[in-house]
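ARCHIVE CARD
CATEGORY: sequence design from structure
SOURCE FIELD: tokenized fold
FIELD CONTENT:
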């Protein structure tokens, strides 16, 4: 009886603030080498996170989509 009254809740979704090079490439539908080229050309800013991993902020991705 008690099990029937239990309400299942889903955890709140949290928007990501930054994405890895591979994740950004998948989101944009391009090869990860294209993301590196955009960074080298100054069209996309990346920052270094822990252990030197490159991350691209969500805002940078949105800005790129608006300008391209």
């Amino acid at each position: 009886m008690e099990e029937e009254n239990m309400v299942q809740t889903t955890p709140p979704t949290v928007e990501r603030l930054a994405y890895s090079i591979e994740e950004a490439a998948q989101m944009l539908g391009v090869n990860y080498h294209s993301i590196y080229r955009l960074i080298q050309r100054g069209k996309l800013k990346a920052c270094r996170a822990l252990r030197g991993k490159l991350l691209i902020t969500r805002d940078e991705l949105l800005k790129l989509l608006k300008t391209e």
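CARD ANNOTATION: The radius of gyration is 18 Å. DSSP finds four helices and three strands in the chain.
SHELF: design records, drawer C
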